[in-house]
Amino acid sequence: MGKRKANARLRHACNTLLMGILVCIVGVFGARMLGSGAPAAEGPGAEAAGAETPAHAYTVVVDAGHGGVDGGAVGSKTGVVEAGLNLTVAFAVRDALEAEGINVLMTRTDEDALADTKQGDMQARRKLMNTEGVDLVVSVHMNRFTDPSISGPMAFYMKGSAEGQRLAERVIASVCEAVGRPVRSANPGDYFVIRESPAPSVLVECGFLSNAEDEALLQTEAHQQKLARGIVEGILAYLAEGSGASASPGTALSESGER
Ligand SMILES: [Zn+2]
How far is the CA of 103 from the centre of ligand 1 (A)? Predict the structure, then answer.
């Protein structure tokens, strides 16, 4: 109960960020109409039901946001481009997951997009997320907002997805801990990679390129490694709890709305 109230308070704070976050997210997920109609499936159990799933059997899709002509957000001070930072952190996440014996599928492994057109790029990402046996998806992004004082990581899950919410809460908690920030709640959203994934999916905004301190930190290898470690610890915590661990009334934070 107390936690829920705290969450509600955080939601107020976070709501004010949502418009700014759209700068980043709409850029990538402008093609979201593309997949409209596909309902968000629930739970890692769907594919893996009854499977023995020891740790080495897990498969995780790691999505480095943007790529190609779509660079994403740009750093206010240095002009650093989001797409490159996403890829660096995504590689660190991949390496740490593989060190845990987890299979990793990367949506991209270089600076290019997955196709010549935005639509083609999104279709390719969706196809990979729909690979049989995928247990969860993590999408790596950097944030931007009009108020340069706003900083720190955030995580989004598909609103209404209890499993996505549980995953996002584990990930944001461990990311905040890894970088020494107060823990934020995960936020519900409705974006391409979290909606089009049949497996639970979390979109991680590692920090704000509109905040000078974040912008500098996000370009250091030490901070990138902390972020990756936090993301992986959150994923491991989620997997350790097993599928269906989310309590049924777990949509307290979701906005009511179109779905
Ligand atoms: Zn982005």
Answer: 24
List, for residues 199-238, the tens digit of each pLDDT value: 999 999 999 999 999 999 999 999 999 999 999 999 999 9
> Are 233 and 93 contacting, i.e. CB atoms less than 8 angstroms apart?
no
Q: Name all domains of the chain by residue range, CATH numbers in brackets.
A: 2-241 (3.40.630.40)
Q: Which long-range contacts (CB under 8 A, 24 or more apart) does 91-95 make?
A: 91/64, 92/224, 92/225, 92/227, 92/228, 93/62, 93/138, 93/140, 93/228, 93/231, 93/232, 94/62, 95/228
Q: What is the pairing mode between strands 59-64 and 136-143? A: parallel
> Which residue bears the tokens 């799933």?
53
- Is the distance from CB of 107 to CB of 124 less than 8 angstroms? yes
Question: For residue 63, is pLDDT > 80?
Answer: yes
Residue 107, SS3 per DSSP: coil
The neighbourhood of ligand 1, an ion, using CB within 5 A, equals 24, 65, 72, 141
> How many Å lie between the centroid of ligand 1 and the Cα of residue 53?
32
Q: What are phi and psi of 133, to 5 degrees?
A: 90, 0
pTM of the model as a whole:
0.77
Tokens of 131: 């690979």
